[in-house]
Amino acid sequence: MNVLDCIYKRRSIRKYSQKPVDDETLITLVKAATAAPTACNTQPWEFIIVTDDEVRKELKSKLYFGNYDAPAAIVVCGNMKLAMSGPVKDFWIQDCSAAIENILLAATSMGLGTLWIGLHPVESNYRPLYKIFDLPKEVIPLAVIFVGYPEEEKEPRTQFNEKRIYWNKYEPRKHRARKKNTKKL
Ligand SMILES: Cc1cc2nc3c(=O)[nH]c(=O)nc-3n(C[C@H](O)[C@H](O)[C@H](O)COP(=O)(O)O)c2cc1C
Question: pTM higher than 0.90, yes or no?
Fold first, then answer.
């Protein structure tokens, strides 16, 4: 599969077969993740691979928007002891997000489905993971990525929208803005 086809084919999969994903495949996904670019090549990431049924069930039960039955999950975390400090500190979020997208694309190319469940910056989303995984406070779970063989089909697509593109200069445009957001500006 070429890269563009893979990018369009990647969709959020919420129905999975219970066929397990083998350890080697999961390691391949983490290898793909860690090929991503990071600011100053800091690689502030850590990955918790979940295949144990008890742990997996506990994890999904704590995810308000992520109670899905995938046979495996990869929790992508930023370790603040590895991240940069000062004004560039928050680059860890971009670094780990690039790693996540690599996981999603690599999985798609291997016939696997994935779902990105966002945790940080919503504290109530990621707090339960400290207990489940016995995490130290410097480790921040950014997302849970469910992985498994898909049991639903979704159309490949882009969401290209010319109205979101500007050439060389920004210009005011009428968007269907969210009411709450315009109040703040
Ligand atoms: C930062 C982030 C957080 C997300 N969190 C959730 C989530 O909690 N639950 C969920 O079902 N999907 C979640 N998604 C998946 C989005 O709902 C999905 O990507 C979006 O609807 C577009 O559909 P597609 O992935 O099939 O292109 C998240 C995606 C991102 C990038």
Answer: yes
